[in-house]
Each structure stands twice: as structure tokens, then as C-alpha cells.
Specification:
Blueprint (H helix, E strand, L loop, with lengths): L3 H20 L9 E3 L5 H10 L9 H10 L7 E7 L10 E10 H5 L5 E4 L10 E2 L4 H14 L4 E8 L3 H11 L6 E12 L4 H24 L5 E6 L2 H17 L1 H5 L7 H15 L4 E8 L2 E11 L2 E9 L8 H14 L6 E3 L15 E11 L5 H23 L11
Parallel strand pairs: 4-6, 11-12
Antiparallel strand pairs: 1-2, 2-3, 3-4, 3-5, 6-13, 7-12, 7-13, 8-9, 9-10, 10-11
Helix pairs in contact: 3-10, 5-6, 7-11, 8-10
């Protein structure tokens, strides 16, 4: 059962083709799992547009690029839900639910028949569910997970107070089941409906803002300070190279985790960012002193939410707090955007740079969705994942903290 997802996909392939031929031209897909590349790009994008809850990291152009190239994040399958408007299958099926998944073995090397939401590089695994049929879509996804041989579905980094998880809870309740929480934390988010200056004044206070303005004036000694937003695919492609260079020049480069240092990771982001920019799904914001870039960040957008993916800084300018300065400008930029209501930092809980600035909190957690009642496999999976989380937290507490003046994601 270790490679449950891939085994099931292969087993269902021929049978699905035969079933579709028998049922007619517009039959509903009957496979439990399918390759991500097999999901209609147009259908995926339509679902994203009508999703009950935004997740920029499960947009088609982003997740497909992750699955194709990103180191350690390839090999996912699509768990999908479909509907049709006509009882006689005379209309085309419509995708109304999707979550990329891997087996528990692939995710954690645990040999249990559990499907796990795939790691999309950004720390959010909220499934896409059509807002007009969210409970039905959730129920269909659960049924297809059962068809794949799974005993449970593990959603990683899902919004605990979000509408998508509520839809899954409602679908489970029909079968007298309920979600089981494995871990939870709260991370920084921005209420972009507020006035930016008032928000920053409330968050940082007059004294801290005065110090940041002083630093910015000193930064201007190196050239006029400018905040730039790259939006078009061509602008994003060019600004991305600046970001990649900045990120690799700092502590992530020293640690060997910068995107530029891994061919698969750099290829993923070079593919995804310009593709998303074609439909306004990605921006790259930059801060410069004269002609010198000192900080840059990738921002993914979906519906009315922005996602602060990664930031890179030139640590030669660390005494001017370039990461904070860029985040202040980004805050003003997002608060001035009438299409953005919230921004998810997608940063770790307790992040020392973003949390003092973005004072909202988004509850995120890992949730196990049992597919059968009184199933010992679910008990084993829950215990194993809980123990793993406790061990990970203990290791983090023992790990020495780096002395960085402007930490980045």
C-alpha cells in the first residue's frame, strides 16, 4: 500500500477508458486518481475561479510546475470530483473539486493506506471546492479516495476556520464521521481592507515607524529608494532573476536551500511565475536604492487573497532593515488594491519579521479525515503523525537560532 496513489492510477486507466466509451461522449470520469497533467487546464482554472476558498498554491500553473520540476515534490496525482448538469450525460462533466495527493509513504515513509495533500512548495494545502456545490464536491473527493483504497485523507496546512474544511466536515457527518486534528498553529496575515498607515501605526507604534523612516533616509544615501511591482509575464520573468540572485546571496544560499541552488526548484519557479502573471496571478515586488536591488519578493494572488511566498534581501544592507522596508511597501500596495481583502504570510508561526507587522492570525493545521468508522488504520495514522510532529517540534527547539537582523521566509 506504500505507493497506493500510483498503483491505483495505473489500475484504473484501461477500465476508465472502457467505462467512458460505454457511457457516452460526456460521461463523468470514473477514475479515483489521475495524473495532474491529465486534468483539463481550462476546467482547473474554472474551478479555481469558483472555489469556495482561495489557495494560490493549488492553481494549475503553479502546482503543475511544482509537480513537474520541484525537488522532492514531484509524483503527485489528482483526486478530483466531477458533476454534470444533465441526467443523461448529454452535457460535458464539470470539475467541482480537486486536491493533489501523494501516498503517506511518499510523504512520510509511513506504510499506511492514507492519501496526503501534496506539498505545493507554499505552505497551504486547502483543496479547491466549487462554492456552489462544496459539500457535494467534498463528499465526492472522499468517495474517490475510498475507491483508491485509502482509509483516510490527510490534509496538510489547511485553514482550520475556512469554508473548505467546513465542507469536508459536513460531508463526513453524513457518514457519522468527523475530522481529527493532528497539529495546529497560527501564522501572520494581513487585513488588506484597512488603511495601511493606520494599520502600520497600530502594529508598530510611532517610535518604531520613526526609526524605520530614519533607516530609509540613510538608505537613500545610496540612491533614490524606489518600490517596483512587476506584473506582466515579461516583467515578472526579469524581476524573478533579481529575486533568485538576492535569495541565493543570503543565509539561504549559505544553508543551500535557495531556489537558485537546485535546478528543479529554479525551473519550477521560472515556469510558474510568468505563467501565473498572464492572468494576474503573480507579482514580484522589489526595493531598490538607486539602481541596486536590495530586496525582492514573490507574491501569488488568487481571488481576493495574496500569498507572500518568499523574500530575498541583500544582506550588505542589513542595517537598513531591507526585508522590513519591503514588507511595509508591500502592505501599502496590498491595502490600496481594491481586489485584495487579505494576505497570507505563509510564514512559520512566530516569524520575527512578519508577525510584528501583520497582526492578523490565520489558524493552520494538519487534519486527518477518516473514511470509515472505527478504523484502526486511522488510529495508527493519527498516532504516528502526532508523534512525528512532537519530535519535529522538539528538534526545532534544540536547533540554534541564526543571528539574522532581517529574517526572510
Amino acid at each position: 500500500m506504500a505507493e497506493l496513489g500510483h498503483i491505483t492510477s495505473r489500475q484504473h486507466g484501461a477500465a476508465d477508458r472502457a467505462d467512458t466509451a460505454k457511457a457516452g461522449r460526456h460521461a463523468l470520469p470514473t477514475h479515483a486518481l489521475m495524473p495532474l497533467a491529465s486534468v483539463s487546464h481550462a476546467q482547473w482554472n474554472n474551478l479555481a475561479g469558483s472555489a469556495i476558498e482561495p489557495n494560490g498554491y493549488y492553481l494549475a500553473d503553479w502546482e503543475r510546475a511544482v509537480d513537474a520540476y520541484a525537488n522532492g515534490r514531484t509524483g503527485a496525482s489528482a483526486l478530483t470530483a466531477w458533476s454534470t448538469l444533465a441526467a443523461d450525460n448529454s452535457s460535458p462533466p464539470v470539475l467541482n473539486g480537486l486536491v493533489p495527493v501523494v501516498s503517506l509513504w511518499q510523504a512520510y515513509r509511513l506504510p499506511l493506506p492514507v492519501l496526503v495533500s501534496a506539498d505545493p512548495y507554499g505552505t497551504l494545502g486547502t483543496p479547491l471546492l466549487d462554492r456552489g456545490a462544496s459539500i457535494e464536491a467534498a463528499a465526492s473527493l472522499l468517495n474517490h479516495a475510498r475507491d483508491a483504497g485509502a482509509r483516510a485523507l490527510l490534509l496538510r496546512d489547511v485553514t482550520l476556520d475556512g469554508k473548505a474544511l467546513a465542507a469536508f466536515a459536513a460531508a463526513l457527518a453524513r457518514d457519522h464521521l468527523q475530522p481529527r486534528l493532528i497539529s495546529a498553529h497560527a501564522r501572520a496575515c494581513l487585513d488588506a481592507t484597512r488603511d495601511a498607515d493606520a494599520l502600520l501605526r497600530d502594529a508598530l507604534g510611532a517610535r518604531k515607524l520613526k526609526e524605520l523612516r530614519r533607516q530609509r533616509r540613510r538608505l537613500a544615501d545610496h540612491g533614490p529608494v524606489s518600490f517596483d511591482v512587476a506584473r506582466t509575464p515579461e516583467e515578472v520573468g526579469s524581476a524573478l532573476e533579481t529575486f533568485l540572485t538576492l535569495e541565493a546571496s543570503g543565509w539561504k544560499g549559505e544553508r543551500g536551500t535557495a531556489l537558485l541552488q537546485r535546478a528543479g526548484d529554479s525551473r519550477f519557479v521560472r515556469t510558474a511565475a510568468p505563467m501565473l502573471a498572464k492572468t494576474g496571478g503573480c507579482e514580484i515586488v522589489s526595493l531598490r536604492a538607486g539602481a541596486t536591488p536590495i530586496a525582492a519578493a514573490i507574491v501569488v494572488r488568487h481571488q481576493n487573497r495574496a500569498f507572500y511566498f518568499k523574500i530575498g534581501i541583500d544582506e550588505a544592507f542589513a542595517k537598513f532593515s531591507p526585508g522590513v522596508q519591503l514588507t511595509l511597501d508591500l502592505t501599502r500596495h496590498l491595502c490600496a488594491d481594491p481586489f485584495i481583502a487579505t494576505a497570507d504570510s505563509t510564514a512559520n508561526a512566530g516569524h520575527t519579521m512578519i508577525e510584528p507587522i501583520w497582526r492578523g492570525r490565520l489558524r493552520i493545521g494538519d487534519v486527518l479525515l477518516p473514511l470509515y468508522r472505527r478504523d484502526p488504520t486511522v488510529t495508527l495514522a493519527h498516532a504516528a503523525m502526532t508523534a512525528r510532529g512532537r519530535l519535529r517540534d522538539a528538534v526545532r527547539r534544540l536547533r540554534p537560532v541564526r543571528n539574522r537582523r532581517t529574517p526572510s521566509f
